[in-house]
Amino acid sequence: MLKPIIALCLLLIVCSLSFAQDMSKFLSLGDSYTYGESVPDSENLYVQLYEAINKAYTWTEPTDIDQTGWRTDDLLKAISEAKPDNNYDFATLLIGVNNQYQGRPFSQYENEFITLLDSAIFYAQNDPNRVFVLSIPDYYFTPFGQEQKGEWVSEELDTYNAYAKSICDSMQVSFIDITPISRRGIKEPKLVANDGLHPSGMQYKLWIEKLLKEMSRQGVL
What we know:
alpha/beta, five-stranded parallel sheet, 10 helices, disordered N terminus
Protein backbone atom coordinates (compact mmCIF):
# COMPACT_ATOMS: atom_id res chain seq x y z
CA MET A 1 0.00 0.00 0.00
CA LEU A 2 2.88 2.38 0.66
CA LYS A 3 4.40 2.12 -2.82
CA PRO A 4 1.52 3.88 -4.67
CA ILE A 5 1.58 6.66 -2.07
CA ILE A 6 5.34 7.08 -2.42
CA ALA A 7 5.03 7.12 -6.20
CA LEU A 8 2.31 9.75 -6.00
CA CYS A 9 4.43 11.92 -3.70
CA LEU A 10 7.40 11.64 -6.06
CA LEU A 11 5.19 12.61 -8.98
CA LEU A 12 3.93 15.68 -7.14
CA ILE A 13 7.49 16.70 -6.27
CA VAL A 14 8.63 16.32 -9.88
CA CYS A 15 5.63 18.30 -11.12
CA SER A 16 6.25 21.08 -8.63
CA LEU A 17 9.92 21.29 -9.58
CA SER A 18 9.04 21.35 -13.25
CA PHE A 19 6.54 24.14 -12.65
CA ALA A 20 9.12 26.11 -10.67
CA GLN A 21 11.59 25.81 -13.53
CA ASP A 22 8.97 27.14 -15.93
CA MET A 23 8.29 30.19 -13.79
CA SER A 24 9.20 33.43 -15.55
CA LYS A 25 10.89 36.28 -13.73
CA PHE A 26 12.10 39.80 -14.39
CA LEU A 27 14.56 42.32 -13.04
CA SER A 28 13.95 46.04 -12.51
CA LEU A 29 16.91 48.39 -12.16
CA GLY A 30 16.69 52.08 -11.30
CA ASP A 31 16.18 54.91 -8.84
CA SER A 32 13.15 56.52 -7.20
CA TYR A 33 11.18 56.28 -10.44
CA THR A 34 11.36 52.48 -10.28
CA TYR A 35 11.25 52.25 -6.49
CA GLY A 36 8.01 54.24 -6.40
CA GLU A 37 8.80 57.10 -4.03
CA SER A 38 5.65 58.55 -2.41
CA VAL A 39 3.23 55.98 -3.81
CA PRO A 40 1.90 52.82 -2.12
CA ASP A 41 3.99 49.72 -2.83
CA SER A 42 1.12 48.30 -4.86
CA GLU A 43 1.31 51.25 -7.26
CA ASN A 44 5.02 51.45 -8.02
CA LEU A 45 6.44 50.65 -11.44
CA TYR A 46 7.59 47.06 -11.10
CA VAL A 47 4.64 45.90 -8.97
CA GLN A 48 2.10 47.29 -11.43
CA LEU A 49 4.07 45.70 -14.26
CA TYR A 50 4.10 42.38 -12.43
CA GLU A 51 0.35 42.51 -11.88
CA ALA A 52 -0.24 43.38 -15.52
CA ILE A 53 1.70 40.39 -16.86
CA ASN A 54 1.00 37.83 -14.15
CA LYS A 55 -1.47 35.34 -15.52
CA ALA A 56 -2.16 31.89 -14.07
CA TYR A 57 0.75 32.39 -11.65
CA THR A 58 3.32 32.03 -14.41
CA TRP A 59 5.49 34.91 -13.16
CA THR A 60 7.42 35.03 -9.93
CA GLU A 61 7.58 38.26 -7.97
CA PRO A 62 10.05 40.65 -9.59
CA THR A 63 13.56 41.34 -8.39
CA ASP A 64 14.18 45.06 -8.00
CA ILE A 65 17.46 46.86 -7.41
CA ASP A 66 16.51 50.49 -6.95
CA GLN A 67 16.45 53.29 -4.41
CA THR A 68 15.55 56.95 -4.19
CA GLY A 69 18.48 59.24 -4.90
CA TRP A 70 20.62 56.73 -6.77
CA ARG A 71 22.86 57.88 -9.59
CA THR A 72 24.36 55.59 -12.20
CA ASP A 73 27.36 54.85 -9.96
CA ASP A 74 25.10 53.97 -7.02
CA LEU A 75 23.16 51.52 -9.17
CA LEU A 76 26.35 49.94 -10.48
CA LYS A 77 27.57 49.41 -6.92
CA ALA A 78 24.24 47.95 -5.79
CA ILE A 79 24.14 45.51 -8.71
CA SER A 80 27.70 44.40 -7.94
CA GLU A 81 26.74 43.73 -4.35
CA ALA A 82 23.44 42.00 -5.16
CA LYS A 83 24.93 39.66 -7.77
CA PRO A 84 21.62 38.76 -9.44
CA ASP A 85 21.22 35.66 -11.62
CA ASN A 86 21.71 35.96 -15.35
CA ASN A 87 18.59 34.09 -16.38
CA TYR A 88 15.85 36.73 -16.16
CA ASP A 89 13.20 36.67 -18.85
CA PHE A 90 13.51 40.41 -19.21
CA ALA A 91 14.94 43.46 -17.46
CA THR A 92 13.95 47.11 -17.21
CA LEU A 93 16.34 50.02 -16.69
CA LEU A 94 15.53 53.62 -15.74
CA ILE A 95 18.36 55.74 -14.39
CA GLY A 96 20.06 59.12 -14.71
CA VAL A 97 17.84 61.78 -13.21
CA ASN A 98 20.00 62.10 -10.10
CA ASN A 99 23.12 62.51 -12.21
CA GLN A 100 21.45 65.53 -13.74
CA TYR A 101 19.82 66.80 -10.55
CA GLN A 102 23.07 66.61 -8.57
CA GLY A 103 25.05 68.35 -11.30
CA ARG A 104 27.33 65.44 -12.07
CA PRO A 105 29.41 65.61 -15.28
CA PHE A 106 27.48 64.34 -18.26
CA SER A 107 30.50 62.21 -19.13
CA GLN A 108 29.83 60.13 -16.01
CA TYR A 109 26.39 59.26 -17.31
CA GLU A 110 27.76 58.54 -20.78
CA ASN A 111 30.25 55.99 -19.45
CA GLU A 112 28.20 54.37 -16.71
CA PHE A 113 24.96 54.11 -18.68
CA ILE A 114 26.70 51.88 -21.20
CA THR A 115 28.02 49.68 -18.38
CA LEU A 116 24.56 49.45 -16.84
CA LEU A 117 23.00 48.56 -20.16
CA ASP A 118 25.60 45.85 -20.72
CA SER A 119 24.76 44.49 -17.26
CA ALA A 120 21.03 44.50 -17.96
CA ILE A 121 21.60 42.57 -21.17
CA PHE A 122 23.78 40.06 -19.35
CA TYR A 123 21.16 39.45 -16.66
CA ALA A 124 18.47 39.07 -19.33
CA GLN A 125 20.10 35.96 -20.79
CA ASN A 126 22.49 38.03 -22.91
CA ASP A 127 19.59 38.97 -25.16
CA PRO A 128 19.17 42.68 -26.03
CA ASN A 129 15.59 42.00 -27.08
CA ARG A 130 14.78 41.20 -23.45
CA VAL A 131 15.90 44.59 -22.13
CA PHE A 132 13.68 47.67 -21.96
CA VAL A 133 15.04 51.10 -21.12
CA LEU A 134 12.62 53.81 -20.02
CA SER A 135 13.44 57.44 -20.65
CA ILE A 136 14.03 59.83 -17.76
CA PRO A 137 10.84 61.70 -16.76
CA ASP A 138 10.88 65.49 -16.76
CA TYR A 139 10.48 66.67 -13.18
CA TYR A 140 10.28 70.30 -14.29
CA PHE A 141 6.61 69.58 -15.02
CA THR A 142 5.81 69.01 -11.36
CA PRO A 143 4.95 71.50 -8.61
CA PHE A 144 8.46 71.02 -7.19
CA GLY A 145 10.09 71.62 -10.54
CA GLN A 146 8.06 74.72 -11.25
CA GLU A 147 9.00 76.24 -7.89
CA GLN A 148 12.63 75.18 -7.64
CA LYS A 149 13.99 74.82 -11.15
CA GLY A 150 13.90 76.35 -14.64
CA GLU A 151 13.22 75.28 -18.19
CA TRP A 152 16.88 74.31 -18.53
CA VAL A 153 15.99 71.10 -16.68
CA SER A 154 13.96 69.94 -19.66
CA GLU A 155 16.81 70.77 -22.04
CA GLU A 156 19.34 68.82 -19.99
CA LEU A 157 17.05 65.81 -19.63
CA ASP A 158 16.46 65.85 -23.37
CA THR A 159 20.23 65.55 -23.79
CA TYR A 160 20.36 62.61 -21.39
CA ASN A 161 17.49 60.86 -23.11
CA ALA A 162 18.81 61.47 -26.62
CA TYR A 163 22.10 59.90 -25.60
CA ALA A 164 20.41 56.90 -23.96
CA LYS A 165 18.25 56.33 -27.04
CA SER A 166 21.26 56.47 -29.34
CA ILE A 167 23.06 53.84 -27.26
CA CYS A 168 19.95 51.65 -27.08
CA ASP A 169 19.49 51.89 -30.85
CA SER A 170 23.11 50.93 -31.45
CA MET A 171 22.76 47.91 -29.15
CA GLN A 172 19.31 46.90 -30.45
CA VAL A 173 17.64 47.54 -27.11
CA SER A 174 14.10 48.91 -26.85
CA PHE A 175 13.88 52.51 -25.64
CA ILE A 176 10.48 53.50 -24.21
CA ASP A 177 9.91 57.26 -24.33
CA ILE A 178 7.68 58.04 -21.35
CA THR A 179 8.97 61.62 -20.96
CA PRO A 180 6.01 63.17 -22.86
CA ILE A 181 3.67 61.57 -20.33
CA SER A 182 5.58 63.16 -17.44
CA ARG A 183 5.29 66.55 -19.14
CA ARG A 184 1.54 66.42 -18.65
CA GLY A 185 2.06 66.68 -14.89
CA ILE A 186 1.13 70.35 -14.49
CA LYS A 187 -2.02 70.21 -16.60
CA GLU A 188 -2.97 66.82 -15.14
CA PRO A 189 -2.12 66.94 -11.41
CA LYS A 190 -3.32 63.37 -10.88
CA LEU A 191 -0.21 62.20 -12.69
CA VAL A 192 1.98 63.53 -9.85
CA ALA A 193 2.34 61.91 -6.42
CA ASN A 194 1.38 63.74 -3.23
CA ASP A 195 4.97 64.88 -2.70
CA GLY A 196 4.64 67.14 -5.73
CA LEU A 197 7.66 65.60 -7.45
CA HIS A 198 7.40 61.91 -8.27
CA PRO A 199 4.99 60.06 -10.58
CA SER A 200 1.67 58.90 -9.22
CA GLY A 201 0.37 55.37 -9.58
CA MET A 202 -1.78 56.65 -12.42
CA GLN A 203 1.27 57.89 -14.31
CA TYR A 204 3.06 54.59 -13.78
CA LYS A 205 0.07 52.83 -15.32
CA LEU A 206 0.44 54.93 -18.47
CA TRP A 207 4.14 54.09 -18.64
CA ILE A 208 3.35 50.40 -18.34
CA GLU A 209 0.84 50.56 -21.17
CA LYS A 210 3.61 51.77 -23.50
CA LEU A 211 6.05 49.24 -22.07
CA LEU A 212 3.67 46.32 -22.56
CA LYS A 213 3.13 47.22 -26.22
CA GLU A 214 6.87 47.13 -26.86
CA MET A 215 7.31 43.91 -24.90
CA SER A 216 4.56 42.31 -26.95
CA ARG A 217 6.17 43.57 -30.16
CA GLN A 218 9.46 42.00 -29.10
CA GLY A 219 7.76 38.70 -28.32
CA VAL A 220 8.66 38.76 -24.63
CA LEU A 221 4.99 38.43 -23.67
